[in-house]
Design a protein that fits this description.
Blueprint (H helix, E strand, L loop, with lengths): L4 H18 L6 E7 L16 E5 L6 E6 L13 E12 L8 E6 L3 E5 L11 E4 L7 E11 L7 E8 L2 E6 L2 E6 L2 E2 L3
Parallel strand pairs: 2-10
Antiparallel strand pairs: 1-9, 2-3, 3-7, 4-5, 4-6, 4-8, 8-9, 8-12, 10-11
């Protein structure tokens, strides 16, 4: 006897829905990639390390600063040590929110270290951007990782641009997790 196809399709759909519900929320977004790059890791998860922390002033609840998590385990593209680096960008969506899109309001300097294809860079550190006294809009963070040609600290041979998706908002010992941006105030 031939089994009906519909119940099997419904069962497969139900199983897919359970798997999707159990999967962690999407983390960072690779916006662009070019040239020769190597391995790297990004700490940007809903349950775990967030890409950035939004720190708010006690009392006024205005955004004070954003701390940005550095990429981890960034390897060079060769067996001998070459330079790798990273920088961050702070973008703002001004009021009325959602009408103008995001524009870059701050670009950090590039933090560099040496790495090879076996031993990653180990001197990258968390960095910070300080908000104006009366911030407005929504803020998000992007980072760019750089790989340099052998023997050069300036000849870029590959990059990847990443947008963080998870933010931990912290104020007066409290916190919550926000997806996509930091608000101007809590």
């Amino acid at each position: 006897m031939r089994r009906p196809v519909r119940p099997m399709a419904a069962l497969a759909g139900a199983m897919l829905a359970v798997v999707m519900a159990a999967s962690p929320a999407t983390a960072y977004v690779v916006v662009s990639q070019s040239g020769n790059i190597s391995d790297y890791e990004i700490g940007d998860e809903q349950n775990g390390m967030r890409g950035a922390n939004c720190l708010y002033e006690t009392g006024s609840f205005d955004l004070d600063r954003i701390t940005i998590r550095a990429p981890r385990n960034v390897h060079g593209d060769y067996s001998s040590k070459t330079w790798v680096g990273w920088r961050f960008y702070v973008q703002r969506d001004a009021h009325p929110v959602g009408t103008g899109g995001y524009s870059t309001i701050y670009t950090s300097s590039i933090q560099k270290d040496r790495a090879d294809n076996a031993i990653p860079a180990d001197d990258f550190t968390r960095r910070a951007w300080f908000a104006s006294e009366n911030p407005s809009g929504r803020y998000r963070v992007m980072i760019r990782i750089y790989w340099y040609a052998p023997g050069s600290q300036t000849n870029v041979q590959g990059t990847v641009l990443i947008r963080y998706e998870w933010y931990k908002a912290k104020w007066s010992g409290n916190f919550y997790v926000n997806q996509n941006w930091c608000n101007e105030d809590y």
